[in-house]
Amino acid sequence: MPTPHPSRHVRVSRRAHGLALGCAALLALGAAAAPGAAAQPAAPAPPSAAVADYYADAEGKSGAALKDALHDIVKDQTSISYSAVWDALGDTDEDPADPTHVIELYTGASVAKSRSGGNAGDWNREHVWAKSHGDFGTATGPGTDLHHLRPEDVAVNAARGNKDFDDGGAPVSGAPGNYTDGDSFEPRDAVKGDVARMILYMAVRYEGEDGCPDLEPNDKVSNGSAPALGRLSVLKEWSEQDPPDSFEEHRNDVIYTSYQHNRNPFVDHPEWVGSIW
User: Fold this and answer.
1) How far, in Å, CA of 256 to CA of 274, rounded?
2) Where is pLDDT greater, at 31 or 22?
3) Distance between CA atoms of 134 and 224, rounded to whole angstroms?
C-alpha cells in the first residue's frame, strides 16, 4: 500500500456545522436534492485549526453513558446522495501517491478513479455495514454514510456480499490476505481495525431514531437481515491489533471537513471501543 498521508492526531471543535438530521429528514433531503448533489453547508474549520472540544460532552464517561454521548455528538451530520458517494470516495480514499487513483479497502490496490462502475476490474461502493443488515438499502442516511462506505473491486465486493466479519475461511481470489467462508469475511491485516471502527461507528450513529434502524454489533455471524452485525469479540481484537493509521485519520478529517461534518470517534479515540463494549 502506498505511503499514506502524514499523521494528524487531532480533536476537532464541535460547532454548528450542519443539520442534525434523522433518517426521515435525510430521506426527504435526498429526494429533493438534484441527482448527485451534496448538501452545501458552511464548512467547519480544518481539524488542525479547530478548538479541541468536539468530544467535550463525552469526556469522563464510559459504557452506555459514553455511547449515548457520542451518539448525540455524531448525529449532527450532513447527508449526501448515493450518487454523490462516487465523487466523495474519490476524495476520502484518494491514493496519496497518485491523486487520480483511489485505494481499495480489501485489495489495497490503487485503481483509477475513472474505473468506478460495475464491470470486471472496476471499483464500486462497498457498504462495510452490509445494507441488508437492517434493510436500509441505499437510502440517504445509513445507506450513504461515508464513514462506512469504501471503494472496492467489484468481484471482491461480491465475495464479501453481506457476510458478517470473523476470522478464517479460504483465500479470496484477487485479494491476498483476505479470507471468506459461508457466513463470514476476514479482511487483510492492514485494515482489520478500520473495518472494526467503521462497524462500531455505525452502532453509535444509528440508534433507531427518526426512521433509522437501530444498528448493534453482536457476537455471532449469520445475522441475516437483522439490524445486527458481528462478530463483536473479533472486531474488538482487530481494533486493538490494527490501530488508526494516517490514511484512516486523514479520511476522517476529509469526511468531517468537506462532506458530513461529523467524525468517527473510534478513529480519534480507539480506547473508547473497550470502554463501551
Assistant:
1) 24
2) 22
3) 9
